[in-house]
Amino acid sequence: MQTLIRTPEDVWVGRIVAGDEPRLLSFLARPEIDALFVKPLSMRSVSLEARIRRGTIWIEARIGLETVGCRAIIFDPGELSATLSTFAVDPRVQGQGIGSLVYEESLRLARTFHPVKIRTDSWEGNVVAAHLARKYGLQQVDAYLDPARRPLGIRTVVYELALERPDRTR
Ligand SMILES: CC(C)(COP(=O)(O)OP(=O)(O)OC[C@H]1O[C@@H](n2cnc3c(N)ncnc32)[C@H](O)[C@@H]1OP(=O)(O)O)[C@@H](O)C(=O)NCCC(=O)NCCS
After folding, report:
1. DSSP string, 43-64
2. CATH of the domain at 21
3. What ligand 1 atom has the least distance to the C-alpha of 103?
4. In whole angstroms, what is the distance from residue 123 CA to residue 125 CA?
5. Closest C-alpha to ligand 1, atom 10
6. Which atom of ligand 1 is nearest to the CA of 90?
7. CB-based contacts of 112: which residues, under 8 Å, 6+ apart?
8. Could you read off the pLDDT of 134-162 as tens digits, one per residue?
9. Radius of gyration (Cα) for the chain, nearest Å?
């Protein structure tokens, strides 16, 4: 494994701005990033371009000018829910805390929409995603077979964090 960082201080994590989408697209289209997902994103029904448009906010992790991680927040104003999606860290720098930084920033930004719940999903057997969900207070609420998005027999696992309804009377 090639090490790109020595300290978490080398990493920038934040919201992307208009014009940054092509960089995100190039990151997600890299074969080694695509292959992190079960199924790979290139085998899903939603194209990468549509996936990027679907995000209300995108969070990027960068080392210098290089994208090394990302996550989308999709806010649903009808349900007052925020869904965290498309979470990946470059395999060369996994296990060094970058995913946790992205998780913390995605939860912080998701809360700015005042959702009543924050959801995310993963696939059965993804122990790192399960560990991080637990670490940040999300609980497993569902698991179901999902042949359109997962290989045969592998369940989608849904995690949720229920939040207080904002008190609008104050
Ligand atoms: C999930 C992912 C983004 C995490 O990124 P990362 O930079 O490696 O994350 P971090 O280094 O911050 O944290 C990894 C955590 O998993 C833990 N972990 C690693 N291997 C583990 C294992 N086999 N079992 C349980 N926990 C494990 C680490 O100890 C660490 O926990 P800690 O913060 O409590 O010490 C990255 O693994 C990835 O891209 N995976 C493939 C895509 C994916 O699974 N996306 C999520 C579902 S869409």
Report:
1. GSSS-HHHHHHH-SEEEEEEET
2. 3.40.630.30
3. 12
4. 6
5. 97
6. 39
7. none
8. 999 999 999 999 999 999 999 999 999 99
9. 16
Terminal C-alpha separation, the chain: 53
Enter the tokens of residue 21: 């989408």
The greatest distance separating any two alpha carbons of the chain, rounded to the nearest whole angstrom, comes to 54
Angle at 32 between CA 31 and CA 38, to 5 degrees: 90
Please give the structure tokens belonging to residue 168.
């609008």
| pLDDT score of 168 more than 90 | no
Q: For ligand 1, atom 17, which residue shows the shortest CA distance?
A: 128
Tell me what pLDDT residue 165 has. 72
Segments forming the whole domain that contains residue 26: 11-162
Q: Is residue 170 part of a domain?
A: no
Checking if the pLDDT of 50 tops 70, the result is yes
